[in-house]
Design brief:
about 70% helix, about 400 residues, mainly alpha
Length: about 400
């Protein structure tokens, strides 16, 4: 596809200015080591330049082709769509498009909007009515729309938590060390921080004028709450395994969750607790060997990724995230999943990971898998005696 002159002009301008700035910055680096004033001028120029780069896409919106379109249009048909229901006419039916649109609107509008509950209630009614019909085609319509919404929300949550983690910048320490170029770009200079903040505000208001500017934590909490809601709906439609597999593949989110805000950690604990219960039911029915092996690997990934969060997360004080009975139930679920792994090495890897995080987190004594660990030690001891 050929690029139009209108699109190329801003790109050429951006590349030209970037090249000139980098070339001129080399001289300022050398002089800045001798003269403090030039060093301050260099910081200001860099701050202004970064702000200009962030402002450029806003002035030329066609440089960002991935920008969401708020207008609803009929999606194109595709035979290769992995989430398309296998029933003729189900995937491209009006009820399927309506459910997809409603789920998209639920994802976009803020919780504080008075129409949020209206749209969500309407979405739940359509999902429930489809299930009440007892028709397999309508059940597949629910599963396809909910699966796509779950995947989209998971990607947004991961990106949101990642941006919150990136915003928490640590001070560089020794201010007299001039051999740290990264300090300019990560916020040591107060002018840079101010300009960067103004750029973020302008960017958000200009590019997301249709959204309410809520706090960063509340937005991530909204997404995590919707993750739980979507997972529950998928389970009600008999498609819980889809949510479990996606949650077991969210390695980046699991890592970022360990340093997330306490309230967000609590929301992620709820999602993990629910999906661990769903993972326990996987493989109960007899199936092919390949399917059972895939389910075993999914359970293993779930434990490796999300068990550290259960050990280290803040579980609430005024309003506990999980009740005492829910915690005990989840402990039994975790023990059952670990013992269903069958392979001694897999159990050892999971229990070793649990022991590390359980003993190094002084603020929590849950989940307590001591009994499971003791049973594994006994089984391992017997296995060694049999080999001798």
């Amino acid at each position: 596809m050929e690029s139009s002159p209108t699109t190329l002009s801003p790109l050429l301008l951006k590349n030209l200015i970037t090249s000139l700035f980098i070339y001129g910055d080399k001289a300022l680096v050398n002089l800045g080591e001798k003269y403090k004033l030039l060093q301050l001028i260099r910081y200001i120029l860099i701050s202004t330049f970064v702000f200009f780069l962030r402002l450029l896409p806003s002035l030329f919106p066609y440089l960002s082709p991935s920008e969401d379109n708020y207008s609803y249009s009929k999606p194109p048909k595709s035979k290769s769509d992995a989430h398309s229901p296998p029933f003729p006419g189900a995937g491209d039916s009006g009820i399927a498009r309506a459910l997809s649109q409603l789920l998209s609107i639920v994802n976009e509008i803020p919780v504080s909007s008075r129409k949020y509950e209206i749209v969500r209630s309407l979405t739940e009614k359509i999902i429930d009515d489809n299930l009440l019909e007892g028709n397999e085609a309508l059940r597949e319509v629910n599963c396809a729309a909910l699966s796509a919404a779950f995947s989209k929300t998971l990607s947004q949550l991961e990106a949101r938590v990642g941006s919150l983690d990136h915003d928490r910048v640590e001070p560089a320490g020794d201010e007299t060390n001039t051999n740290r170029p990264n300090r300019v770009y990560y916020g040591m200079n107060q002018v840079f921080r101010a300009v960067w903040y103004c750029g973020d505000v302008f960017w958000t208001r200009f590019r997301r004028s249709g959204e309410e500017l809520s706090g960063p934590g509340s937005s991530a909490e909204k997404l995590s709450a919707e993750m739980l809601w979507l997972a529950q709906k998928l389970a009600a439609c008999g498609c819980a395994e889809e949510a479990v597999c996606r949650w077991a593949a969210a390695a980046k989110l699991a890592w970022l969750s360990l340093s997330a805000e306490p309230r967000l950690q609590g929301s992620l604990v709820k999602v993990s607790a629910f999906l661990f219960k769903q993972a326990k039911e996987m493989g109960v029915e007899e199936g092919e060997e390949n399917t059972r092996e895939q389910q075993r690997q999914t359970k293993m990934k779930m434990l490796i990724l999300w068990l550290p969060l259960l050990c280290r997360a803040s579980h609430g004080t005024d309003a506990p995230v999980l009740s005492i009975n829910e915690k005990k139930e989840l402990e039994r679920v975790l023990e059952d999943i670990i013992e269903s792994l069958e392979e001694e090495e897999d159990q050892e890897q999971v229990l070793s990971l649990w022991l590390h995080h359980f003993t190094h987190c002084l603020s929590s004594d849950w989940p307590n898998l001591h009994s499971c660990y003791a049973r594994w030690c006994t089984a391992s001891r017997r296995l060694l005696l049999l080999r001798c």
